[in-house]
Design goal:
By secondary structure, this protein is mostly helical. It is 70% helix and 0% strand. It contains six helices and no strands.
């Protein structure tokens, strides 16, 4: 057997063994990630949870901070995108729409933005 063929075979076996190890034996496990890494359907569920939490607390600053974890867009934009893409029930859509109406004109006070 030629040296090139032997080297190619060894490299191919190493690649296969590495892929098998990485996919089956010790796959990557993500923990403690932020909501912006969620799949779109789970982001929509997160938005719904924020809207439902707002129903109980009436704390716009908290809702805005929670929505801010989904990206740098204005919270009203995040809510509108979620309403457009998600398959919410009428009651769920109403909750998200209610929060969007409240947060559209919301401007944080200076003391709220200081850590």
């Amino acid at each position: 057997m030629s040296r090139w063929l032997q080297t190619l075979l060894i490299a191919l076996l190493g690649l296969i063994a590495g892929l098998f190890y990485g996919w089956r034996i010790a796959p990557v496990q993500y923990t403690n990630t932020t909501p912006d890494t969620l799949a779109p359907e789970y982001k929509n569920e997160y938005v719904l949870m924020v809207a439902e939490t707002y129903q109980g607390t009436n704390d716009l600053a908290l809702a805005a901070r929670q929505l801010g974890l989904l990206g740098s867009a204005h919270p009203a934009q995040i809510l509108a995108e979620s309403l457009k893409n998600a398959a919410y029930s009428p009651q769920e859509s109403e909750r998200v729409q209610f929060l969007m109406d409240k947060i559209e004109d919301w401007q944080p006070a200076l003391e709220e933005s200081i850590p």
